[in-house]
Design a protein that fits this description.
This protein is α/β, with parallel strands linked by helices and about 950 residues long. Among the domains are: about 190 residues, Alpha-Beta Horseshoe (Leucine-rich repeat, LRR (right-handed beta-alpha superhelix)); about 160 residues, Ribonuclease Inhibitor (Leucine-rich repeat, LRR (right-handed beta-alpha superhelix)); about 180 residues, Leucine-rich repeat, LRR (right-handed beta-alpha superhelix), CATH 3.80.10.10. The chain contains 14 helices and 51 strands. The chain binds 2-acetamido-2-deoxy-beta-D-glucopyranose (NAG) (6 copies). The site of one 2-acetamido-2-deoxy-beta-D-glucopyranose has 4 residues, from loops. Keywords: ATP-binding, Cell membrane, Kinase, Leucine-rich repeat, Membrane, Nucleotide-binding, Repeat, Serine/threonine-protein kinase, Signal, Transferase, Transmembrane, Transmembrane helix.
Length: about 950
């Protein structure tokens, strides 16, 4: 991109723009106003586009004294504009510079037939789709810069591109283009930059490109190109950048490459099928800054790069390069000349011998050193400690030995330290506390001994700590609980003793804990269940006693085998999956699901169980129900303003086409008899599509209403990529004109025969629907919990599993729809936002205890009472129940986000509650 900008600024004096106020061209004004009209402009970038200002002074509009009063440029990069790029711009006959990069424009790439004068077209970083239509380009014979990178364009690069003789720079990178690189590029003889990285191009690189003798930058990395790079390319003497990483290029590099391409600054051919030696002539291309030949099959020695004074990155990892014992480390002497060297990656080669002492003479800029996976031996030279700028050091999987204390602790900028798989000895020194920037630490598979120093608990940025397979002794220091960012903790196969610190549950990011093969004693902390991210826990081969905490159910992998655990094995979650849980070698365990083949348990006390369920199950159930009701009541005053129901809808080819007439037919011409709801943006009708006899709900947007179009777009946008069984499913969208030629927007959903939750909770429509059994029944507690689970699942999906997190912004009973089986579906995405854009909610001043009797549905209160009376816990069960209820609800409405449970936790809690509740109910029915 910088290169393109440079082209623009160097070649054209875009700065000296003047405006001739006397001349005004009405066509230009109309075209601009049309552009403004059809473009979404959330940040009001086009605010100055009004009649009180001369259009030559409008933001982004450029006029030129050579064509008095005529618009020659539209420079609106990075203004958050979106919508389709209107063809009306083609009516601005003198338009030369069009820059709409870094916006959200979507739809097809516009045809450029009318843009005869265009010199620069920069549309990079938008969401344009579709093919580059060959004919659309041919008229742009003045085009010099064409940047379409970072869009979603597909199909081949049209061969016609070669007829754009003025072309200097073309950038197609980061799209989904396929097909071959057209050889016709060679007709655009003035081309300086050709970039097509990160597409799906195939075939070989055309030798014709070798005719483009002015070429500076040639980029085709990240495609599926095969064959050799044709020899003429290596004759492009002015070439500065040759970028072909991640392809399937199979060849040996020409031995004189450094002499034929003397201006090379960047050579990136990593991740291909290159073989043979690395040409020593590369060391002559003195401008080289980046050499990436990693992940190929190069053999032989590393040439001397000592003349490359500007070299910053030398990446040769994962080849078959050799340094024999005691020999050929000379190339390292040369590298000490490279005072800009920042990165040296030589991992996974065949380097032998000791790391030379002169490594300490490398540049102070030196930041990344990887020598892992070689055959290095001896001690690490203490001079390595001079490299105070090191950020990333990997020496893993070699045969290095000795102590690390002398050099490691002066590397104060280290973020990643990997010493795994060597024979380092000694203890973990207290001076490790110096390495306060570490995020990744692996000392695994060495011979470290002594205790785990508590100072490690001060490395608060650590996200991964692997100390496994050493001889570490003593207790796990409770200070480790200070590692709030830690995701992976591996202490397995040491000689650790004592208890697992209960405080470990404060490391809320932990996903994996491995402490197997130690001598740990005591209980498994129940608080592990509070680690919301935890998926894998391995504690096998220790001396742990006590019971298996049911709080471990949400894990996906659990190994507790070979301990002294006792008691009943839980049956839910991970315990229900015999392939994910290991419990063998614990003589005191019993029960569990049959697949575990554990001995059955003696009968347990029924009374304790009831108590357990009352405390663990009932209170949270009511808690969540009250939350829903609370939210509902809090929204009561807004109720009248939003009562539509809607859902998710992409506009894509795989959705059936429905015409305006189809909808007229389906809804009996939108008759009142079919009307089932009205909201601020439109009206919802029941209907039956004639083609497939499907019952549907049709939401017709009232486009007179301000924001209705936006609401339609918002729903389509939010729901483009989401699909979940608890989200109201869209059948299709209809964007057309009605019989009078006015714009018409509608969304078509599955019809939900049981209406919305609002009706059920408040018996709305009782009068209207007399005889309809929907309206007369009350929801049972089981149904209510199911609905809560459905909606929690849907929200969890929106927040955590959809492509981009989506905030619904309008969850309330009237937006929760019920199908025939009373399964709940969340609808109405009219104000949903990928980034929160909701108006402020009534908050804080909301709930006081005096709200209780009004909040709780009278029918729910009955059930609540019934259950509470069976309890042995409370003296005043109704009061107790209601207070607990409100407490849980309030805890979910805490103002600070980090105090609130997130949707994933809430969803899994409610699911567990539902499961337990149903089990409990079944048991009760049996015992009655
Ligand atoms: C404005 O531009 C149009 C289209 O190029 C042209 O036909 C017309 O003569 C111009 N009007 C003036 C006043 O320059
Ligand atoms: C652009 O010009 C075409 C015909 O040349 C005309 O039909 C169209 O309305 C014009 N659009 C605008 C926005 O001026
Ligand atoms: C462009 O180049 C191709 C070969 O690369 C050639 O056949 C063709 O005639 C050239 N001219 C045009 C106008 O495409
Ligand atoms: C490269 O250029 C030289 C000198 O111009 C020429 O002799 C040689 O044939 C060219 N090689 C290729 C492969 O085009
Ligand atoms: C190295 O970089 C400097 C500064 O960017 C530049 O002036 C110099 O010409 C470069 N050296 C070579 C040999 O390209
Ligand atoms: C650790 O356990 C092993 C095997 O159970 C045992 O041989 C060893 O003595 C124990 N070590 C300590 C320090 O308790």
């Amino acid at each position: 991109m910088l290169v393109l900008l440079a082209f623009l600024l160097l070649s054209y004096g875009a700065g000296d723009v003047q405006c001739a106020t006397v001349h005004a061209n009405i066509t230009d004004i109309l075209s601009l106003l049309h552009f403004k009209k059809v473009t979404n402009d959330p940040t009001q970038a086009l605010k100055s586009w009004n009649r009180s200002t001369h259009y030559c002074n409008w933001n982004g509009v450029m006029c030129d004294p050579s064509y008095p009063g005529r618009v020659v440029g539209l420079l609106l990069g990075g203004q958050r504009l979106s919508g389709q790029i209107t063809l009306s711009l083609g009516n601005i006959t003198f338009l030369q510079y069009l820059n709409l990069s870094h916006n959200g424009f979507s739809g097809q790439l516009p045809s450029l037939n009318q843009f005869h004068e265009l010199v620069l077209l920069d549309l990079h970083s938008n969401s344009l789709r579709g093919m580059i239509i060959p004919d659309s380009l041919v008229n742009c014979s003045n085009l010099r810069v064409l940047d379409l990178s970072k869009n979603m364009l597909e199909g081949p690069i049209p061969a016609e591109i070669g007829s754009l003789y003025s072309l200097r720079a073309v950038d197609f990178s980061y799209n989904n283009l396929n097909g071959v690189i057209p050889p016709t590029f060679s007709n655009a003889t003035q081309l300086l930059l050709l970039s097509a990285q990160e597409n799906q191009l195939v075939g070989s690189i055309p030798g014709e490109l070798g005719k483009l003798s002015n070429m500076l930058t040639l980029g085709f990395g990240g495609n599926s190109l095969s064959g050799p790079i044709p020899p003429p390319i290596f004759n492009l003497t002015s070439l500065q950048v040759l970028d072909g990483y991640f392809n399937m290029l199979e060849m040996e590099l020409p031995l004189d490459i450094g002499d034929t391409l003397p201006k090379l600054q960047s050579l990136t051919l990593g991740g291909s099928m290159l073989k043979g030696p690395i040409p020593a002539s590369l060391g002559n291309a003195s401008g080289l800054q980046v050499i990436d030949l990693g992940h190929n099959s190069f053999v032989g020695e590393i040439p001397d790069f000592g003349k490359l004074l500007n070299l910053t990155q030398l990446i040769l990892e994962s080849n078959k390069l050799e340094i024999r014992n005691g020999q050929s480390w000379e190339s390292f002497y040369g590298l000490t000349n490279c005072r800009s060297l920042e990165m040296l990656l030589l991992g996974n080669n065949q380097l032998q011998g000791a790391i030379p002492d002169l490594i300490g003479n490398f540049s102070t800029e030196f930041a990344h050193l990887q020598l892992n996976g070689n055959d290095l031996s001896g001690i690490v030279p203490p001079s390595l400690g001079n490299l105070g700028g090191l950020i990333d050091l990997s020496l893993s999987n070699n045969s290095l030995f000795g102590s690390i204390e002398g050099w490691v602790t002066s590397l104060k900028n280290l973020q990643s330290l990997d010493l795994e798989g060597n024979s380092f000895v000694g203890s973990i020194p207290p001076s490790f506390g110096n390495l306060s920037k570490l995020t990744l630490l692996s000392l695994a598979k060495n011979e470290f001994e002594g205790p785990i120093h508590p100072i490690l608990g001060e490395l608060t940025r650590l996200s991964s700590m692997d100390l496994s397979y050493n001889n570490l002794q003593g207790e796990i220091p409770p200070e480790i609980s200070g590692l709030k960012e830690l995701r992976m903790l591996n202490l397995s196969s040491n000689k650790l003793t004592g208890e697992i610190p209960n405080d470990l549950s404060q490391c809320q990011s932990l996903a994996t804990i491995q402490m197997d093969h130690n001598n740990l004693t005591g209980h498994i902390p129940t608080s592990f269940g509070d680690l919301m991210s935890l998926t894998t826990l391995s504690l096998s081969h220790n001396d742990l006693s006590g019971t298996v905490p049911a709080s471990l159910q949400p894990l996906s992998k659990l190994d507790l085998s070979y301990n002294q655990l006792q008691g009943v094995i839980p049956t839910k979650g991970v315990f229900g999956n015999a392939s994910a849980v290991s419990l063998g070698g614990n003589s005191g365990l019993c029960g569990g699901v049959p697949e575990l083949h554990m001995p059955s348990c003696p009968a347990a006390s029924q009374r304790n169980k009831i108590r357990y369920y009352l405390i663990r199950v009932l209170i949270p159930i009511f808690g969540f129900m009250s939350l829903i009701l609370l939210v509902y009541f809090l929204l009561l005053e807004r109720k009248m303003s939003r009562r539509t129901y809607e859902s998710h809808a992409p506009l894509g080819e795989h959705f059936p086409k429905v015409s305006y007439n189809d909808l007229v037919e389906a809804t009996w011409n939108f008759s009142d008899a079919n009307l089932i709801g009205k909201g601020s943006y439109g009206t919802v009708y029941k209907g039956k599509l004639v083609q497939n006899k499907m019952e549907v709900a049709v939401k017709v947007f009232d486009l007179e209403m301000r924001g209705a179009e936006r609401s339609f777009m918002s729903e389509c946008e939010a729901l483009r990529s989401i699909q979940h069984r608890n989200l109201l499913s869209i059948i299709t969208a209809c964007s057309t004109v009605d019989s009078n030629g006015n714009p018409f927007r509608a969304l078509i959903y599955d019809f939900m025969p049981k209406g919305n939750l609002d009706m059920w909770l408040h018996h709305k429509g009782d009068e209207k629907n007399k005889g309809d059994d929907n309206a007369h029944k009350n929801l049972t507690l089981t149904q209510r919990i199911s609905i809560a689970v459905n909606i929690a699942d849907a929200l969890d999906y929106l927040h955590n599993d959809s492509e981009n997190p989506i905030i619904h912004c309008d969850v309330k009973p009237s937006n929760i729809l019920l199908d025939d089986d009373m399964v709940a579906h969340l609808g109405d995405f009219g104000i949903a936002r990928v980034f929160l854009d909701s108006r402020p909610r009534p908050a804080g001043s909301t709930s006081s205890i005096g709200q209780i009797p009004d909040v709780i549905d009278v029918h729910l209160k009955e059930e609540c009472k019934e259950f509470a009376e069976a309890s042995v816990v409370s003296e005043d069960p109704v009061h107790q129940c209601l207070v607990s209820l409100l407490q849980v609800a309030l805890s979910c409405t805490r103002p600070l986000p980090n105090e609130r449970a997130n949707m994933r936790e809430t969803a899994s809690k409610i699911q567990a509650i539902k499961a337990s509740y149903i089990e409990r109910k079944e048991k009760k029915n049996i015992s009655l």
